[in-house]
Amino acid sequence: MGADRSYAYGAAAGLLGDLLLGDPRRGHPVAVFGRAAGAVEGALWHDHRGWGALHTAVCAGGAVALGAVAERAVRRSPAARVALTAAATWSVVGGTSLAREARIIGRALEAGDLTAARARLPHLCGRDPGALDADGIARAVVESVAENTSDAVVGALVWGAVGGVPGLVGFRAVNTLDAMVGHKSPRLRRFGWASARLDDVAGWPGARLTAVLATLAGPDPRGALRAWRADAANHPSPNAGPVEASFAGALGVRLGGTLSYGGRVEHRPVLNGDAGRAVRVTDIDRAVRLSRRVGLLALGTTVAARLLVQSAKSLKGRGK
User: Fold this and answer.
1) 270, β-bridge pairs
2) Which terminal Cβ of the chain has fewer Cβ within 10 Å, N or C?
3) Alpha-carbon distance 99 to 143, whole Å?
4) Cα dihedral sign, 184-174-203-274
5) What is residue 127's predicted lDDT score, i.e. its pLDDT?
6) Residue 245 confidence (pLDDT) above 80
7) pLDDT exceeding 90 applies to what percent of the chain?
8) 155 — alpha (psi -120 to 50), left (phi > 0) or beta?
9) Distances (CA, A) of 37 to 169, 179, 274
10) Residue 61: per-residue pLDDT
11) Are 19 and 100 spatial neighbours (Cβ–Cβ below 8 Å)?
12) CB-side exposure of 45: number of CA atoms within 13 Å?
């Protein structure tokens, strides 16, 4: 069995594992990485971009190197290659946990329990829940589902197709570092700059693929394409913009607007403002279903692309 077929089987098994099992309750590899990155941050922190770049290089580079060593160790065993890829994929994708958290909040809102919904929202995103009413929480959930479909599922599959296990764990490491230190707080504005910029670069292809697949798989492809083209560039994030705009258009809702992070108020442009309506609680489940479809399509797309590239290389090699 070739390495590319091993990757295809392993990635499919890993995504199936996420669908059936979700994230492990204890000892999650991403949590272990987070603790290690936190320890490195404590040792290296200075209010300087150079030290932040070193932190990023040590943590992300260490994750990629570990993945490369593990992949090399199993290179002679097809079964071990499949198992390693499956374990890595299951560890780095988070579609099931994303869907579960979104639906927990949605059920609380349906029951009229705003207190429970506010208490649960920090499990999904960094918004200030106390500043949100029911509609605001529903909008925050839909936006988080859209953005995390790219960050927690599609982006990892893209880099896995490009770089195998090192690509999978490397992307997740970069994304985790951005979540940890890539903020504009006074303490992290300079130290987290490198992590935030690297996350922008690593997330670029996955965000565009997510937007394409949301457009194709959503209930309103024309609306998704229109919102993407008209509004994505107005978003402050180069990657969240296409994803959230395409989800907004596909679902026929308005996203964006005023929000609050850590006591800091931001006024973001409205996405799909001309054609969309306000988000309703029922849109949470619609967003989750769209996210699921996008994740499955991303698996098929990225695996097929990897196999096609390898086939083209093989044909070219035979022609020489």
Assistant:
1) 256
2) C
3) 13
4) negative
5) 81
6) yes
7) 81
8) alpha
9) 14, 11, 43
10) 97
11) no
12) 12
2 pLDDT band, cuts 50/70/90, is confident
Q: Which residue has the higher pLDDT, 278 or 315?
A: 278
**Average pLDDT estimate for 64-74:** 97
CB contact set of 124 (below 8 Å; sequence gap of 6+): 98, 101, 102, 105, 140, 141, 144
> Quick one: CA torsion of 251, 179, 18, 247, rounded to 10 degrees?
10
